[in-house]
Amino acid sequence: MNRHICIFLLLALHLFFIGDLISQTDTGSSAFIIGRLKYSGGGDWYNDPSTIPNLLAFLGSQTNIYVGADEKKIQIMDEDLFSIPVLFLTGHGKIHFSEEEAARLRKYLLNGGFLYADDDYGMDRYFRQQMKNVFPDKQLIELPASHPIYRCHFNFPNGLPKIHEHDPGPGFGYGIFHEGRMIVYYTFNTNISDGWVDQQVHGDPPEVREQALRMGTNIMVYALTR
Question: Which of 19, 96, 102, 106 is at 20 to 30 A from 133, Cα to Cα?
Answer without folding.
Answer: 19
